[in-house]
């Protein structure tokens, strides 16, 4: 089916033409044995309503070594929580709780 | 109209405890003068900065929750901008966000209660029920900051 989000590089299947559709069927067959866990938004799953900029322990997993914000396609965070996470990280950066960049 | 704000400021590591306290009394003074109140003060103590600010690698963090007008926060912001001892500060309005959070929380618990009743269960989760041992109180200990300033 088209709605398989489990392919890492799928990008939500945006902008795929008819040609892409034909290819995907083949791909799907090829990749069937490989199993990817379906990603779930951490904040939805753990019922964290408040993404607070002071809570570095919560934010740190979303800023890996280079200190860039982890993209949604990798972390699996939902759109609403990614937005909140972004503001929280940006505030924490202002206060030097989280680095802007790794040197 | 009064709103709730959160103010965090980072004091230079060279500052003595008295100077930090003095900054706090300054904030208190401004707040009183302009019809606001300080609801909470937390001193997080000395922490490592994530990056160097100027030549500093450490700083003393202080958090204040202030109930007051925008004018008041403007004045505090202006003061901190010209105070060299304060190397970084941030003012965030929290009342609206907090009400949204409370609303989602109550809505979620209401929904779960209704579902449980519909399934013929008691509205609240019984101890020892559900998958694995879920800690009941995992939110509060995640971020313990140290004692109050006062």
Would you kindly provide a written description of the structure presented here, covering whatever features stand out?
The complex is a heterodimer of chains A (103) and B (150). Chain A has 103 residues and is mainly alpha-helical. Chain A has 2 domains: 1-38, no CATH class; 42-94, 30s Ribosomal Protein S18 (Irregular), CATH 4.10.640.10. In chain A, 41% of the residues lie in helices and 0% in strands. Chain A is built from 5 helices and no strands. The longest helix of chain A has 16 residues, at 79-94. Chain A is globular, with a radius of gyration of 17 Å. Residues 1-26 of chain A have low confidence and may be disordered. Chain B is an alpha+beta fold. Chain B has a domain at 3-95: 2-Layer Sandwich (Alpha-Beta Plaits). Chain B contains 3 helices and 4 strands, in the order βαββαβα. Chain B has helices at 17-33, 70-82, 95-118, and strands at residues 3-11, 37-53, 56-68, 86-93. A 4-stranded antiparallel beta sheet of chain B has the order 2-3-1-4. The two termini of chain B are 28 Å apart. At the A-B interface, helix 5 of A face strand 2, strand 3, strand 4 and helix 3 of B.
């Amino acid at each position: 089916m088209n709605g398989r989000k489990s392919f890492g590089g799928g990008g939500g299947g945006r902008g795929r033409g008819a040609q892409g559709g034909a290819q995907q069927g083949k791909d799907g067959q090829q990749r069937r044995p490989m199993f990817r866990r379906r990603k779930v938004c951490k904040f939805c799953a753990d019922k964290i309503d408040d993404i607070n900029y002071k809570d570095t322990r919560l934010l740190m997993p979303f800023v890996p070594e280079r200190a860039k914000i982890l993209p949604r396609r990798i972390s699996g965070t939902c759109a609403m929580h990614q937005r909140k996470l972004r503001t929280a990280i940006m505030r924490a950066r202002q206060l030097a709780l989280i680095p802007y960049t790794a040197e | 109209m009064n709103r709730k704000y959160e103010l965090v400021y980072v004091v230079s590591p060279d500052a003595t405890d008295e100077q930090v306290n003095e900054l706090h009394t300054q904030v208190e003074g401004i707040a009183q003068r302009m019809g606001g109140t300080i609801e909470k003060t937390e001193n997080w103590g000395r922490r490592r900065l994530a990056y160097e600010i100027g030549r500093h690698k450490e700083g003393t963090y202080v958090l204040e929750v202030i109930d007051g007008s925008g004018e008041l926060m403007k004045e505090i912001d202006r003061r901190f901008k010209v105070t060299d001892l304060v190397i970084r500060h941030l003012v965030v309005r929290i009342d609206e966000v907090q009400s949204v959070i409370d609303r989602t929380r109550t809505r979620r618990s209401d929904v779960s209660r209704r579902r449980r009743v519909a399934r013929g269960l008691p509205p609240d989760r019984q101890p020892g029920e559900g998958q694995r041992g879920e800690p009941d109180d995992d939110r509060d200990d995640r971020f313990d900051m140290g004692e109050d300033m006062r």
